[in-house]
Design brief:
Helix content is 76%, strand content 0%. With 439 residues, the chain is an all-alpha fold. It is found in: Cell membrane.
C-alpha cells in the first residue's frame, strides 16, 4: 500500500473492531479479485481473439469481449447465494471461500487448451472458468465492504472502506506490470505459454491474502446481531420487503463501474485499433493512473467522512462523463505525456471519487441483518452494465475510427443514471453504524 492506515484519532468514535486489519484484509482480497479480472480483461483485448477463436473470424474481438462479460452474468446468482450465507453464518467464512474460488478459477484459465487444440470447446471452457470467477467476485467486494464498515469507527467508515476499492487499484497495477513483459515476447511465445504465466502467478497473491484474512474475526455489529437473535432466516426476503428501493438505487448507482471497464479494457482495444498505440503503452497508462489512485482514493474517502457520501460520489460520476472524450482523444494525439495526463485526470481525479466512496455509500443504506445481501445483489445487478460495456460499445462501432463518440455517449448516459440515483439517496455519514438502514 502506498499509505499507512492511521489510527482512529482521539476524537473518533470507537467501534470495538479492528478497522486496520479489516481494511488490510479487504485491500488484499480486492487486489486478488482485480488482478484476476484485469489480466482477463487485458487478455480479452489482446490475446484471446487469437487463442480461443478462429483466426479468420472477424467477430473474434466481440466474442472475446463477451467472455469478459459472462462473469457478470454469474454475479447476480452468486450475490443471492453468497449474500444469504454472508448474512446468516458470517462475513469472514464467505470471504475465505470467495478468495479460494477466485484463485483456483484464474489458475485453471492459464491451463486451458486453445482453439487449435480442441476447437469450440476452448471458448466454452473459458466461459465456464469465467463464470466461476464471477461467482467469487459476487461476494468479495460486498463482504469486504460490509466487514470493514462494521469494524470501523462511526466517523471514519468511508476512509476505511475506501481501502476495499483501493485494493482494486493495487490488483490492476500488479496485473499490468506482470502483463507488460508478456506483450514484449515474440508472438510464438506470447500466444503460446507466455500469456498463461500471469494467470498462474495469481496463486501467489491468493496465498498472501489467505494468510492475513484467516486471522480476522467477525465484526462487532454482526456478532451483536447474532447474540441478540437478529440474524435473518431469509435475508433476501427481508431485504426485498424492507429495502427494495435501496436495492434499486444501488443497482443504478453501480452503473458507474462501467467507467472502469471502459478505461481498463475497452480503451486498450480502441487505442490499439484506432490510434495505433501499442499495448505496452496503454498498459503503462493504466499503471500510472492506478498508482495515483492509490493516493487519491483514501483522500476521497476522508473527504466523504467530512462532507458526506453524496457530493463526492456525484462529483466522481459527473467528472467521469466529462473526461471520457478527453482521455479517448488524447489517445489519438500521439503525445504520450498528454495521454498520461489525461489518464490520471480521468481515472485518479474523476472516477476514483465515486470508486472510493461507494463501499460506504451503498453499505450504509442497509441494516446489519441484510447488509451483505443488499450490497451484493444491488452491486452485482448494476455491474452487469460494466461487464458488457466493452461488447456493447464494440458492437456499436466504438472501436472503429470516430468511435470515441459512441464510447463517450455511452459513458455519459451511465454516469447520468448513477448521479441521478445518488441524488435520491439518504445522506448517512453522520448516522451511527448501529442505526444504519433503520427507517
Amino acid at each position: 500500500m502506498s499509505q499507512t492506515l492511521p489510527s482512529a484519532g482521539a476524537g473518533a468514535l470507537t467501534s470495538g473492531g479492528t478497522p486496520k486489519k479489516a481494511a488490510l484484509a479487504s485491500f488484499l482480497g480486492s487486489a486478488v479479485e482485480y488482478y484476476d479480472f484485469f489480466i482477463f480483461g487485458s487478455a480479452a483485448a489482446l490475446i484471446f481473439p487469437k487463442v480461443f477463436f478462429p483466426d479468420a473470424d472477424t467477430n473474434a474481438a466481440i466474442m472475446s469481449f463477451a467472455t469478459f462479460g459472462f462473469a457478470y452474468v454469474a454475479r447476480p446468482v452468486g450475490a443471492i447465494i453468497l449474500g444469504h450465507f454472508g448474512d446468516r453464518v458470517g462475513r469472514r467464512k464467505v470471504l475465505m471461500f470467495t478468495l479460494l474460488l477466485m484463485g483456483a478459477s484464474t489458475f485453471v484459465i492459464g491451463c486451458l487448451p486453445d482453439f487449435k487444440t480442441v476447437g469450440w470447446w476452448a471458448p466454452v471452457l473459458l466461459v465456464l472458468a469465467r463464470l466461476c470467477q464471477g461467482l467469487s467476485a459476487a461476494g468479495e467486494q460486498a463482504g469486504a465492504s460490509s466487514m470493514t464498515l462494521e469494524h470501523a469507527p462511526d466517523n471514519r467508515r468511508s476512509f476505511f472502506t475506501s481501502w476495499t476499492l483501493t485494493g482494486t487499484q493495487g490488483g490492476q497495477i500488479l496485473a499490468a506490470l506482470v502483463f507488460i513483459p508478456v506483450l514484449a515476447l515474440p508472438d510464438e511465445i506470447k500466444f503460446g505459454i507466455g500469456w498463461r504465466i500471469p494467470f498462474w502467478l495469481s496463486a501467489v497473491v491468493v496465498v498472501v491474502a489467505f494468510l492475513i484474512r484467516r486471522t480476522l474475526h467477525e465484526p462487532p455489529a454482526f456478532e451483536e446481531a447474532r447474540k441478540t437473535a437478529q440474524i435473518a432466516k431469509l435475508p433476501v426476503a427481508d431485504l426485498l420487503k424492507g429495502h427494495w428501493r435501496d436495492v434499486l438505487r444501488v443497482i443504478c448507482c453501480a452503473f458507474i463501474a462501467a467507467v472502469s471497464t471502459v478505461f481498463g479494457t475497452l480503451a486498450i482495444s480502441y487505442a490499439k485499433t484506432v490510434a495505433g498505440v501499442d499495448g505496452t503503452t496503454t498498459l503503462w497508462l493504466v499503471v500510472g493512473a492506478n498508482l495515483v489512485a492509490l493516493g487519491t482514493q483514501p483522500l476521497f474517502g476522508m473527504l466523504a467522512d467530512k462532507i458526506g457520501r453524496k457530493p463526492v460520489f456525484i462529483y466522481g460520476a459527473v467528472a467521469s462523463a466529462i473526461l471520457t472524450p478527453v482521455f479517448l482523444l488524447s489517445l489519438e494525439s500521439g503525445s504520450i505525456p498528454l495521454m498520461f495526463l489525461a489518464a490520471i485526470g480521468y481515472f485518479s481525479g474523476g472516477y476514483a471519487a465515486a470508486n472510493a466512496v461507494w463501499p460506504s455509500f451503498y453499505a450504509e443504506m442497509f441494516s446489519t441483518k441484510v447488509r451483505f445481501s443488499g450490497l451484493a445483489i444491488g452491486t452485482q445487478l448494476g455491474f452487469l452494465m460494466a461487464g458488457f460495456a466493452p461488447a456493447i460499445v464494440a458492437a456499436m462501432g466504438g472501436i472503429k475510427p470516430g468511435g470515441w463518440v459512441q464510447i463517450s455517449i455511452f459513458t455519459a448516459i451511465i454516469c447520468a443514471v448513477a448521479a441521478v440515483s445518488a441524488l435520491t439517496a439518504r445522506e448517512s455519514f453522520r448516522t451511527p453504524t448501529r442505526l444504519l438502514g433503520l427507517k
